[in-house]
């Protein structure tokens, strides 16, 4: 079964049509790049995946939910199946790395503090940050903060990772390290959908390319 099945979808923002005629199917385990200039609709499409923006027209299912008819009460359950990696990190600056991740687990219904702590250390180990659990965000480099964000995205074992320009604020070498990490996560079986305007990444880390131009989304070569 497809994780995502969009047919003739139209997306509007502030009453303006941003994307039209979107036909898209994404299967489990794919590495998918959303490619195009800033402002071409990549982030807009991503926002429809986690119900931040409604679908204006067409048919759209995501992780088994009908995105045209999804109820507000269903949205938290949808979002627990998604890990989101933001360009600007969005870590809580008043608490350390472990407490940032503890906050997410508490908010999504985990109860046992011992189990939570062990799980946090396992996920930090996965992203190479186990020795930074007690650091504050301001004590970390940009690349280290983004690794923590990826750890946060992995906490609830999502079915898909949505990465919105995850290397946009990083220098090229650090960006490449983050790409290595995301690519390894995909190779382990998780779907990764990543927006970027850097054409280098799909060449170095092959995946499916979706090209955004003039309000349309087309398969790339």
Structure summary:
This protein has 221 residues and is α/β, with parallel strands linked by helices.
What sequence of helices (H) and strands (E) makes up the elements?
A: EEEHEEHEHHHEHEHEE
Indicate the overall shape. globular
Oligomer: single chain
Tell me the major beta sheet.
6 strands, mixed
Distance between the termini: 24 Å
Q: Topology, please?
A:
Layout: E1 4-13, E2 16-26, E3 31-35, H1 42-49, E4 57-62, E5 65-66, H2 75-79, E6 82-85, H3 97-107, H4 113-126, H5 142-154, E7 160-164, H6 172-187, E8 191-196, H7 200-204, E9 208-213, E10 216-219
Parallel strand pairs: 3-8, 3-9, 6-7, 7-8
Antiparallel strand pairs: 1-2, 1-4, 4-5, 9-10
Helix pairs in contact: 3-4, 4-5, 5-6
Would you write up a description of this structure?
The structure is a single chain. By secondary structure, the protein is of the alpha/beta class. It has seven helices and ten strands. It has a six-stranded mixed β-sheet, with helices on both faces. Strands 2-1-4-5 form a four-stranded antiparallel β-sheet, covered by helices on one side. β1 and β2 form a beta hairpin. The chain is globular and about 45 Å long.
